[in-house]
Amino acid sequence: MWDRALMPGADDEPIKSDLANFRRWVGILKDYDDDNLHDFDLSLARLRKAADDGLVYAYVDSLVTIGELRKIIDDPLVRTVRVADVAYDLERP
């Protein structure tokens, strides 16, 4: 998985914080969320295992640019990129 926090020179604190947030999010998911997760080729069981094992299969980036997204897609370590939602901030330059 690509993550800004995993880029060379990044310290461990953002990684720990992101993982803690991921674990909190997975902790609030309910069994009935599984149907929606399948739309993104995920399952609640898989997310719970990732949270327990310390692995992350996805992340949310509200500031990624098209150019950065192209770099993510071209990264040989990235297996899949699925854009779940796109919103444009018309106020942002």
Unreliable residue stretches: 1-10
Query: What is the 3D form?
Result: globular
> How many strands in all?
0
Radius of gyration: 14 Å
Number of helices: 4
Strand proportion, as a percent range, falls in under 5%
For the record, give the distance between the C-alpha atoms at the N and C termini, rounded to a whole number. 28 Å
Helix proportion of residues, in percent?
40-55%
The arrangement of helices and strands along the chain is HHHH
Chain-averaged pLDDT: 76
Which structural class do the helices and strands define?
mainly alpha
Major sheet summary line: none
Helix-strand blueprint:
Blueprint: H1 12-28, H2 34-38, H3 44-53, H4 66-74
Would you give an account of this structure?
By secondary structure, the chain is mainly α. It contains four helices and no strands. Helix 1 (12-28) packs antiparallel against helix 3. The protein is globular, with a radius of gyration of 14 Å.
Q: TL;DR?
A:
With 93 residues, the protein is mostly helical.
List keywords for this structure.
93 residues, mainly alpha, 44% helix, globular
